[in-house]
Specification:
Blueprint lengths: L13 E5 L4 H6 L10 H8 L19 E5 L14 H6 L1 H11 L3 E5 L1 H8 L7 E7 L2 E6 L10 H17 L1
Parallel strand pairs: 1-2, 1-3, 3-5
Antiparallel strand pairs: 4-5
Helix pairs in contact: 2-6
Length: about 170
């Protein structure tokens, strides 16, 4: 059985938080490994990484100020809805501890549902939120999953917004 390890370092610019590992990520041990997931393409197209990284290069992301984790670390699934919502809600305290320890400038919930499981309500809008976790600002994007492709243009715009937030402040 593989595990998808967190990609973390102290004081990163951005910590992306996903739902849980996909079956492909679980098998390979790398985040966002499903070829239909747009995550690495979004990072590159927004200028957050200087080139298009492959999932097996996820360990390089801290060099670019980026970390990765999931709300639920140890239950892989083909779809986030296969994991009981109580399991996501129970993972909140551990994620809070991690964020307060590593102190990223910006916590990006990669999926509106990840934000909902963490905070218990829907964000009023996508993008930068008024909430904070410790000293970290909070940002919400639609999931980078291929299953959320109705949001293609909006995701691109939001990732560019993340880049400008990091660059500007």
């Amino acid at each position: 059985m593989m595990k998808v390890p967190d990609v973390l370092a102290k004081n990163l610019d951005i910590l992306f938080v996903g739902f849980n590992p996909s079956l492909i990520s679980w098998k390979t041990g790398h985040h966002y490994a499903n070829p239909v997931n747009n995550f690495y393409r979004l990072l590159y197209e927004s200028g957050l990484t200087p080139r298009l990284l492959k999932p097996e290069e996820d360990g390089m992301l801290p060099l670019y100020g980026i970390g990765l984790t999931n709300l639920v670390l140890d239950i892989p699934s083909a779809n986030e809805s296969e994991v009981p919502s109580a399991v996501y809600r129970a993972a909140r305290d551990e994620l809070t501890r991690k964020i307060k320890h590593y102190k990223p400038r910006l916590v990006v919930f990669n999926g509106i549902g990840v934000f909902v499981y963490y905070f218990g309500y829907r964000p009023k809008k996508l993008g930068l939120q008024p909430e904070r976790i410790g000293t970290s600002q909070v940002f919400v994007t639609p999931s980078s999953s291929g299953a959320a492709n109705a949001y293609v243009e909006e995701r691109k715009k939001l990732y560019k917004e993340i880049k400008s937030l990091i660059d500007g402040g």
